[in-house]
Design a protein that fits this description.
It is a single chain. This protein is an alpha+beta fold. The protein has 18 helices and eight strands. A hairpin with a 5-residue loop joins β6 and β7 (436-443). The chain is globular, with a radius of gyration of 23 Å.
Length: 468
């Protein structure tokens, strides 16, 4: 099946390092370098060496799984992803990656189950919705595929992959009720503005054909083919021939996923896997050892859990570190625009403003949440190396203001919108029981956080200081 892109992420190993742990880190980073150079056998060996000394290192299992995935050894990749998830059942990346492997094996129900679990862990990650949308599409359910890709767009309105997949479905779905040529053309053009690649031009050509504009379809498809290796353009040529005969393209859900699309996906997985800043998730005590049963009609239903009292302010915070990016004096709008710009790049940014006595109102922009200074510093180095950020400093900000708990995407987006209208940016950190902790701000001291409570309460926002 064409037009399927699965992003499988890994995060750099980091922590408070003893001499032994430093040796583990060096072995892990060596494995990462082998992944970057596409030397997958050596990457597998490096991660295996780490696991010999540290058999509970779930990140090493996950990273070895990626190397095996890229070697098309999907069964062994699934085994490694499963071991990572057994050790840390809240590890989003492992569960999401296993969903991608099931998708490549055409085990679509199992893929949907894993993507659904990943969404429950972190409903703010667009790639999990895209992955589940791909699985629904491969099962021939265009309606649910469009719904999930639309949810991805709700999270990131500039998600080019989600945009062009909606365009493709709108142009080629065998079920006429989901086809809309004008919508497909508009979405495909929007995607091309973000990424003028061959897949995107191919999608625009199909959209033109669905609209009856076959001359435009032919010329656009020829441009797409020109960007491809002639040995891998058979499917594109088939579509070109169809358009020349004035026949729109219809997706055939019984045709296996094309090799060309697999090659393109794998090149993108390597880029995402080796350059993704870390997003931590919390380990809970009870592991899941079996794949959940997924009922077709109930997958999109989401339980909402609200509590009037926040999680306990226990000694020691889970994620006391973050990255300080910018600070603006008396300019809340600039801080908000900076957060939007970073989120469009896929960077988990948030901001908050506070009055500093004698210094005016300052608005600070932060990125991410980390359990150790080393992991925060490594993430900062990665972001600067990618030239995504010019500056990023690891800082300790263990306190925050709690505003809610939920595992509902719609509920989270609603709360984000409500508080955004009052001038506050909400961000989420995964908590226990599949819930996301919704927070405002990141403060160095408890007293600093308490100083904002009265301001929030005057605006009808109930909150309490908690440790991140």
């Amino acid at each position: 099946m064409r037009n399927i892109v699965i992003f499988i992420c890994i995060s750099l190993f980091a922590g408070v390092l003893s001499a032994t742990e430093n040796r583990f880190e060096q072995g892990f980073e060596q494995g990462i370098r082998f992944l970057e150079s596409q030397d997958y056998d050596k990457a597998i060996a490096a991660f295996s060496d780490v696991l010999k000394s540290d058999p509970a290192n779930f990140k090493a299992f996950h990273s070895r799984g990626i190397a095996r995935f890229l070697k098309e050894d999907y069964d062994q990749a699934i085994s490694d992803f499963t071991r990572a998830a057994e050790i840390n059942p809240r590890y989003f990346e492992a569960i999401h990656s296993r969903g991608g492997a099931w998708l490549y094996k055409k085990e679509y129900d199992r893929a949907i189950a894993d993507f659904t679990n990943a969404i429950e862990i972190n409903p703010l990650q667009a790639e999990a919705f895209r992955g589940r949308g791909d699985a629904w599409f491969c099962k021939g359910d265009c309606g649910k595929a469009v719904a999930d890709h639309t949810r991805a767009l709700d999270i990131n309105p500039k998600d080019a992959e989600a945009i062009y997949k909606i365009a493709w479905i709108s142009a080629t779905c065998p079920d006429a009720q989901y086809r809309d040529g004008e919508k497909a053309v508009a979405m495909a053009k929007k995607a091309i503005e973000l990424n003028p690649g061959a897949n995107f031009l191919d999608t625009l050509a199909a959209s033109y054909a669905e609209s009856g504009k076959f001359d435009e379809a032919v010329s656009t498809q020829e441009k797409a083919i020109a960007l491809l290796d002639t040995k891998t353009s058979e499917e594109y040529l088939s579509r070109l021939d169809s358009y020349k005969k004035h026949k729109p393209w219809r997706e055939n859900f019984t045709v296996p996923w094309k090799k060309q699309d697999e090659d393109e996906v794998k090149s993108e997985i390597v880029s995402e896997a080796t350059h993704s800043p870390e997003i931590k998730t919390e380990i809970v005590s009870e592991a899941k050892h079996s794949y959940p049963e997924v009922e077709t009609e109930s997958v999109e239903k989401t339980e909402v859990v609200k509590k009037e009292t926040p999680v306990s302010d226990t000694p020691g915070s889970d994620y006391p570190y973050t990255l300080h990016i910018f600070s603006y004096m008396n300019n809340k709008e600039m801080a908000a625009r900076t957060v939007i710009r970073l989120k469009e790049k896929g960077i988990p940014a948030f901001s908050f403003c506070s009055d500093a006595p004698g210094k005016g109102a300052w608005c600070h922009v932060f990125v991410g949440y980390y359990d150790t200074f080393e992991s925060a510093r490594n993430a900062a180095s990665e972001l600067k190396a990618q030239k995504l950020l010019h500056s990023a400093d690891a800082v300790r900000r263990p306190y925050s203001l709690w505003v809610g708990l939920s595992n509902s995407f719609d509920e989270i987006k609603k709360l984000e919108k409500e508080l955004s209208q009052k001038g506050y940016a909400v961000y989420g950190i995964p908590g226990s029981q599949n819930l996301v902790r919704l927070l405002i701000g990141a403060f160095e001291t408890k007293e600093e956080a308490e100083g904002l409570i009265l301001v929030l309460e005057k605006q009808g926002i109930k909150t309490k200081v908690v440790k991140r």
